[in-house]
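Notes from the 1:1 (GR / supervisor)

We went over the backlog. Supervisor wanted to see one worked example end to end before approving the batch request, so GR pasted a single chain during the call. The sequence is below; no edits were made to it. Supervisor asked that the structure be written out right there so they could see what the output format looks like.
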Amino acid sequence: MILYVRYYYTKKSFALQQKLFVRTEELLRERQKTENLLSRVLPREKAKELIDQGKVDAQKFQMVTVLFADIQGFTKITDEINADSLIDQLDRLFFEFDSIVEKYGIEKIKTIGDAYMCAGGIPHPNRTNPFEVVAAAVEMMGCMQKLNQQLNNGKEIWELRIGIDTGPVIAGIVGRNKLTYDIWGTTVNIASRMESASEPGKINISENTYLVVRDLFECKFRGKIPIKNKGDVNMYFVEGFLPKFSESSRYIPNNDFRVELQLVRLADLEEFVLEKLEKGLPKNLYYHNLKHTVDVYTQVELIGRAENIPNEDLLLVRTAALFHDMGHLIDYATHEEMSVKMAHEILPRYGYTPEQIARVAEIIMATKLPPKPKNILEEIICDADLDYLGRTDFIPVSNALYKELHEHGMVGSLHDWNLIQIDFIQKHQYFTQTARRLRNVNKDVQLKNLKRWMNELENDTSL
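Structure output shown during the call:
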């Protein structure tokens, strides 16, 4: 009887567990459906915030670039094209726009009929959004021409009009039953006015945007427009990428443009990395601290420009300098390897290609002692990393390095350390002509000072 009771309750418990498991699976699937649905209408971060907190607070962004695009004469087109064909063509056009917007990391806000609205610099602030939005606009124009060529034998049936402005906006979620992510403010109003004042086949930008992007795009002044509470605002037509930044067509950017964009984006990466180092580095890193990273980052740019390396190489070596000691956030002994790991995790978010990341990783590993650089970029970072050997502040920097190594159990007495320093400096050589010209003389002075100080110390000891 006892065995039967045990069997009965065990069976019942198992059945309840099975029901609980099935119900849990159903709830997880429903949650996933909700997250997927929200991510289609809201930025992914805002969708997660809404699910976790049940609400999303409005945010103010200081620099956002807003784009309005409108199909010119859409009503006329509806009279000339079959309705089904019209919708198919419009869907195809907006699909192409979505692809361009996604490529540049721009947030699509909404489409209303034949109008398309997007904005760069939200929900993640950045410095590159004016360039990215204008580049997207140029590619949209190229896409429109291509579509006309394919569907209408080159006849300009679809004509696009674009307006853009850069400035502060308020962003938030509106609606109860149907949630949408939207933006408000003077910048949105000016961008809308830029679009309405534009012309078919033209990109009309405000002076706010022009002052940022004029070095990368071909722009033409086209007059002023009165705007309420702003007075007269200058307007410019964007004709396309500057010839040196475009392929055979002015609507297609070349690699030089992408590198220029990455160099602007480097300022965002710099801010991110330095903040991580400032907050996260252990307090007993007296040498491998934030100041050392800033010193190396500054010096690689100085040496790189003096050595006249190409812009993309300058980008990569500066990036490697930012990351070369970031691994100290994880581990002291293997910080170079940890730095490489962090570079692989972080750099894709800043538009680096796999090939660029691989080169950055090689440059970082070149800082591992003893230095054995294999190319000019590795030579530059090795020289920048040991720049202090030939600086006037050599003694205090050397003492900071000794204190750090001593606390980590990697060096003995100060006397032993100075002997190591003398031996290291005697064998050390700078690799680049720039570093040799800037630091060799003072490095020899520091070596003589160390030897003299050691001799005086030994004579005092013998007495």
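Supervisor's comment: DSSP finds 16 helices and eight strands in the chain.
Batch request approved.
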